Amino acid sequence: MDISNYLYLSIILFTIGAVGVVIRRNAIVVFMCVELMLNAANLAFVTFSRINGNLDGQVASFFTMVVAACEVVVGLAIIVTIYRSRRSASVDDASLLKR
Amino acid sequence: MTTSTHLVYLIALPLVSAALLLILGRLADKWGHLLATLVSASTFAFAASEFFAMRSRSGAARATTQKLFDWISVGTFKVDAALLLDQLSICFVLLITGVGTLIHIYSIAYMSHDRDRRRFFAYLNLFIAAMLLLVLGNSYLNLYVGWEGVGLASYLLIGFWNQKPAYATAAKKAFVANRVGDVGLSLAIMIAFAQFGTVSFAGVAAGAPHASSAALAAMGAMLLLAAAGKSAQFPLQSWLGDAMAGPTPVSALIHAATMVTAGVYLITRSNFIFDASSTARLLVVIVGTITLLFGAIIGTAKDDIKKALAASTMSQIGYMILATGLGPIGYAFAIMHLLTHGFFKAGMFLGAGSVMHGMNDEVNMRRFGGLNRFLPITAITFGFGYLAIIGVPPFAGFYSKDKIIETAFNAGGTKGYILGICALLGAGLTAFYMTRLIVMTFWGTPRWSRDEQHPHESPALMWVPMAILAVGSVASGFLFTSGNSMVHWLAPVVNPSGAEGGAELMKPIVVSLLALGVVVIGVAYAIFKYRTVPVEAPEKVTVFTRIARRDLMQDAFNEAVLMRPGQKLTTGLVWADYSFVDGLVRAVGFTLGTSSQAVRKIQNGYARTYALVMLVGVLALVATIWMVTL
């Protein structure tokens, strides 16, 4: 199997994630899309590691996972707080910055 | 050169007294005038003792100095705050403190009804201190401090009754006109520093013979400008007439006897500059001659007794300035006329004050007349002053003014003739306007209402100073000229090289006869013309009279040539500031504001929009990198 297919999959996953972030309103879904983009990037890292025959890409993907874990903690906390105060998980409702 | 440790008390005494009276305020109301007068008198006594001490010394030891402290010490440039009392300054110190004390005494009675009398005396003492500093400073910079101090005192005293807006304006006018002159003095000091590296009189005098003629002429012109401002000389003369808004004793002390003669002092003190520059001397005689005629012509048309005397002061100082421009021999005559003028003009101003005192502060001479029967002492003392100023022998003015006319003729050539004839003409005009003043005030039939006016002689506190000044008007001229005492006394300061006057064009007796001739013509014409005096100033007069009544258009000239264009310039500058400078700033603000308003719309608060923008940005970045690497 051609190893570049992994890269195509990574691109597709990333695109799905990016489009999801832009068009979905529910904060949880947006959040999951962000995770999807991160994992697409991880897949690309691992693939490149395989292509180049060294471990650099894999090390980078571990870093990404750690950062993603932290981000989940902070992000979910924010979403829960917003939901508590506004009774809504829609990202469009939290648009106070423009005023 | 003798050193002294107590010269400073001459200045410190009146200064402390002024400060005390101003700080204590109403607490000092009861005794303030007495303290001020006492201080002034003790300063005079001190000055007199200094004078006799100086007379007992001889030669170079006569000049006394006192160093107070290092004032400015920068690198090689050093200015000490130091005092110098020499043959020239002692004349002024005696005049200032002597006439000053008499006027203090006079003012006790004259200002007795004024609730601010204490403040008046505080200002008088402040003036005395500043004027003494002016004549005692040993450098131009020290002189400058006193110069500004008398300007301040003059401003405060002209505007003493500043509840009347016109008087406050007159004070401001005097201050501004003086300021123009002060620019001249500060420029002269800068030239001295640039040229000689020092500003002390001795240092400049030592350097003057080696300096370039352009620098000397420039410094002389600037000193002349300063003198013109302070001494109300052409073209800065217009403030003196309005300065008569001040109480009459102020007019007598500051605007007749002392402060206005500071310009003559400045030029005489700077004799080394003017001796070395014929250009500067020429400017001085031109200014002096113009002013002596200018003032005399204004004097012939004024109905306000104080303004007529002010015009006369201007004219007489013109004589002094003329004399200072006539070379080394002229300075002594200028100082001599200054001293005699200090006596007779101060005396006449006090006389005018006494008349006003008796006439409910009326100043219009057309509403006087026949006052000699009601104010006999004033009439007599004023009469002595009158005889002195028109130059009737043996009164003071005869000696001092004739010397100036004689020296003017002896200047030589066409210049000598022009100056001499102008000076003679001025003497004739002086005789005319002073006779007019006397006739309108003291002679003729009363033109005042007997119901409203009750003219009465002034109290002794007022007439005694007048009488003393009248004695000075009689005797001073003879004292100064007998044996050329004044010339010899001043020679070490003003004529160190011992220069003689020019060749005698005419014998002194001829000049005296000529002068007496024009005086007789002036007096006779005035008596003839003012046999009857209409109460209202005649409307149908020649254009010349009309111009003279308006002070020879000096205010109109200043307004048209200086004030209006100045006003236009400032309005233009304000406009330019508003439209260009402010406009630039406002344009920056406006551009930023509107563009921010436009950019603000992007900030819609939707997290998804931001995410999209980020995505597009990243894509654009990646695309750019890709295209570059390809």
Features:
heterodimer, A: 99 residues, mainly alpha, 3 helices, B: 630 residues, three-stranded mixed beta sheet, 24 helices
Characterize the structure shown.
The complex is a heterodimer of chains A (99) and B (630). Chain A has helices at 4-23, 27-52, 56-86. By secondary structure, chain A is mostly helical. Chain A starts with a helix and ends in a 13-residue tail after the last helix. Chain B has 630 residues and is mainly α. Among the domains of chain B are: 284-549, no CATH class; 561-629, no CATH class. Chain B contains 24 helices and three strands. Chain B has a three-stranded mixed beta sheet with strand order 1-2-3. In chain B, a hairpin with a 2-residue loop joins strand 2 and strand 3. In chain B, helix 3 packs antiparallel against helix 19 and helix 4 packs antiparallel against helix 5 (140-158). The radius of gyration of chain B is 30 Å and the shape is globular. The termini of chain B are far apart. The model of chain B has no long low-confidence stretch (mean pLDDT 87). Classes of the chains: A mainly alpha (99), B mainly alpha (630). The A-B interface holds A 18, 21-25, 30, 91-92, 94-99 and B 603-608, 611-612, 615.
- Tertiary shape of chain A: elongated
Main interface by residue count: A-B, 15 and 9 residues
Number of helices of chain A: 3
In what order do the strands lie side by side in the largest sheet of chain B? 1-2-3
Radius of gyration of chain A: 16 Å
Overall strand count of chain B? 3
Count of DSSP helices of chain B? 24
**What ranges of chain A have pLDDT less than 50 throughout 5 or more consecutive residues?**
none
Report the principal-axis shape of chain B: globular
Q: Note the run of SSEs of chain A as H and E.
A: HHH
Tell me the span between the first and last alpha carbons of chain A.
Answer: 54 Å
